[in-house]
Amino acid sequence: MTDYLIAPSILSADFARLGEEVDSVLAAGADVVHFDVMDNHYVPNLTVGPMVCKALRKHGVTAPIDVHLMVKPVDRLIGDFIEAGASWITFHPEASEHIDRSLQMIRDGGCKAGLVFNPATPLHYLDYVMDKLDVILLMSVNPGFGGQRFIPGTLDKLREARQRIDASGYAIRLEIDGGVTVDNIAEIAAAGADTFVAGSAIFNTNDYQATIEKMRSNLKH
Ligand code: DX5
Ligand code: ZN
């Protein structure tokens, strides 16, 4: 059976109470903390950096922290996030001058490495780096904001990415980010995803545990 992971995105959390919010989603059954880093340059929004990741570790968060870098340039922040306690680090290939090197830096720092694809970014960036990947993250919205609608064409792209992963023989997670809800999670899993980022669908509900349980139960059917 596929081992599905649910990764709430802190972008939709109450930032004034971030530590408590992360504790709450983890207590509610989340597997991974999805940490969106935006630089007002690669994407039109500005969020948080390594200091906040470090603060979550200091607060006592032991779950994996999945750092999604929406920044350009990429490399300098990789070292900072490794230091800050990141577990996974993913970046957008078109934002890196040297994709292979960025991936290697992440793995050399002991983190899991991944590439992120915007809705219209072709998967050919995968061609020569499958052996250096632990995760492939497909964006199902244009990056920058939470609460957007899932772009349906991403389902075909998921199927294509799933085929590439299976053909490669590597253990690479297939993560989806953007517009994931209780209602569409089953269809997204059927297309090949095994790791689900969800921001507004979790944080905009009152009962995180009930929402995560519904997601898991929909993944079983
Ligand atoms: C968007 C971010 C997402 C975002 C998802 O650029 O990468 O992680 O928080 O939010 P929802 O789940 O609300 O679409
Ligand atoms: Zn994200």
From TrEMBL:
The GO biological-process annotations, alphabetized, read as: pentose catabolic process; pentose-phosphate shunt
The cofactor remark states: Binds 1 divalent metal cation per subunit.
Q: Which PROSITE patterns match?
A: RIBUL_P_3_EPIMER_1 (PS01085), RIBUL_P_3_EPIMER_2 (PS01086)
| UniProt superkingdom | Bacteria
Q: Manganese as a keyword?
A: yes
Annotated positions binding substrate: S9, H68, G144, F145, G146, G147, D177, G178, G179, G199, S200
Catalytic residues (positions): D36 (proton acceptor), D177 (proton donor)
> Residues that bind a divalent metal cation, according to the entry?
H34, D36, H68, D177
Question: What pathway does the UniProt record associate with this protein?
Answer: Carbohydrate degradation
Write down the InterPro entries for this protein, in alphabetical order.
Aldolase_TIM, Ribul_P_3_epim, Ribul_P_3_epim-like, RibuloseP-bd_barrel
Q: Which UniProt keywords apply?
A: Carbohydrate metabolism, Cobalt, Isomerase, Manganese, Metal-binding, Zinc
Could you give one GO CC term from the UniProt record? cytoplasm
Residues spanning the signal sequence: none
Q: Which reaction does it catalyse?
A: D-ribulose 5-phosphate = D-xylulose 5-phosphate
GO molecular function terms attached to this record: D-ribulose-phosphate 3-epimerase activity; metal ion binding
Q: Which CDD domains match?
A: RPE (cd00429)
| Group of enzyme by EC | isomerase
Xref: Pfam families: Ribul_P_3_epim (PF00834)
- Please state the Enzyme Commission number of this protein: 5.1.3.1
Spell out the family assignment given in the record's similarity comment.
Belongs to the ribulose-phosphate 3-epimerase family.
HAMAP family assigned: RPE
UniProt function note: Catalyzes the reversible epimerization of D-ribulose 5-phosphate to D-xylulose 5-phosphate.
What is the official name of this protein in its record? Ribulose-phosphate 3-epimerase
Q: Origin organism of this chain? A: Nitrincola lacisaponensis
Tell me the gene name.
Answer: rpe
